[in-house]
Amino acid sequence: MQTNLQILVDEAHSLCRKLGGNGKVADYIPQLATADPAAFGLSVCTVDGQTYSAGDVWTPFTMQSISKILSLACVQAAGIDPYARMFAEPSGDAFHSIVRLEEEKGRPRNPLINAGAIVVSSLLPGATANDKIEQLLGFLSRCAGGASFVIDDAVYQSERRTGYRNRALANYMKHFAVIDDPDTSVDTYFRQCAVRVCAGDLARIALFLAADGRDPLSQQLIVTPDINRRLLAVMTTCGLYDEVGQFALRVGLPGKSGVSGGILAIVPGRMSIVTYGPALGERGNSVAGLAALEFLSSRLNLSLFCPPDLRSEGTPL
User: Fold this and answer.
1) How far apart (Å, rounded) are the C-alpha atoms in residues 181 and 170?
2) What is the model's pLDDT at position 157?
3) Which residues, at least 6 apart from 234, have a Cβ–Cβ distance to it below 8 Å?
4) From the CB of residue 49, how many other CB atoms can be counted at a distance below 10 Å?
5) Environment class of residue 218 by beta-carbon count within 10 Å: exposed (0-12), middle (13-18) or buried (19+)?
6) Distance CA 176, CA 7 (A)
7) Which ranges in the chain belong to alpha helices (H)?
8) How far apart are CA 44 and CA 51, in angstroms?
9) Hey, which end of the chain has fewer CB within 10 Å, N or C?
């Protein structure tokens, strides 16, 4: 049965890796434009500790917006309620949109758009950006069973030099007293987006999301089951911005994407799946990654919208 899953991972990689030619790498952060558009990796980590991988799974990339769900988990694990300062509704807008902040008095629509993520970054424990990011890095280490992670300084500096729109979002929210210190908040956000991982790392980090908040390998409680279910809910409704509806139709799983080319998907109770393909479609999501996740979801009946008995029969574990 486990061999069957590796065969399907290999097949997904083989079928989808060439689709990167239909997209292009992000260039609004200059350092991201240096990524190889032909790179593609796929890593699956199951709750019993098995891994199934194909392609460029050890090629480093920065988490970018995938970090948003992990910083949200870190803040909530610390007992802080981010929803006192934002909503939990799909935005229907691009990830960096500012249009709804005026009508909603500076409160972001959800924690996974840039404005909401900046608020979450502001809530990470610590007084300075360095303190806050150390808290997040420590949280990631706990999730990954003790592995350590670093910030890609070249990407961080590139984001700092070009991040005027994110600074505008932060200052706008400061006007409405949604955040207290826009400079620290934005600098923390730039740093968390620049945390360097690879697909194999990220699948391991996120495994707690597939196991109701507990790392199934170390048995350490990362977040409570209630918080974990809220994290999966916001991923399902908001994780791919203005492509979240198509993701629900095509894949049907909680997901979170980033403009460096990563996509994280969670199969509750079963596995985490991470794809890495830096060639993006028009809405900023990996072309090859979306196709691979659709393939695996279809072949394994992984969608949350499948009947439970069909999902069970379709998963070769």
Assistant:
1) 8
2) 97
3) 69, 72, 88, 110, 111, 112
4) 10
5) middle
6) 53
7) 2-16, 67-77, 99-103, 114-123, 129-143, 153-162, 164-175, 182-193, 199-205, 207-210, 225-238, 244-250, 287-300, 308-314
8) 6
9) N
Is residue 49 within 8 Å of 61, Cβ to Cβ? no
pLDDT in tens, 37-81: 999 999 999 999 999 999 999 999 999 999 999 999 999 999 999
The 3-state DSSP composition of the chain as helix, strand, coil percent (nearest 5) reads 50, 10, 35
Cβ contact 256:235 at 8 Å:
yes
Q: How far apart are CA 141 and CA 150, in angstroms?
A: 11
Closest CA to 142 of 218, 227, 57, 193: 218
β-sheet bridge partners, residue 45: 51, 272
Q: Which helix (H) or strand (E) holds 267?
A: strand 262-267
* Residue 234 in tokens: 């916001």
Catalytically active residues are: 65, 68, 189, 241, 259
CB 86 within 8 A of CB 110: yes
Distance CA(155)–CA(30), nearest Å, equals: 8
Q: Residue 137, exposed/middle/buried by CB under 10 A (0-12, 13-18, 19+)?
A: middle
CB 206 within 8 A of CB 264: yes
> What residues of the chain score a pLDDT lower than 50?
1, 317
Amino acid 268: pLDDT: 97
Chain mean position to CA 228: 14
Under 8 Å between Cβ of 253 and 262: no
Closest-CA residue to 20 (of 278, 299, 295): 278
Adjacency order of strands within the sheet including 262-267: 51-55, 41-46, 271-276, 262-267, 255-257
- Its pTM surpasses 0.85: yes
Give me the count of residues in the chain. Answer: 317
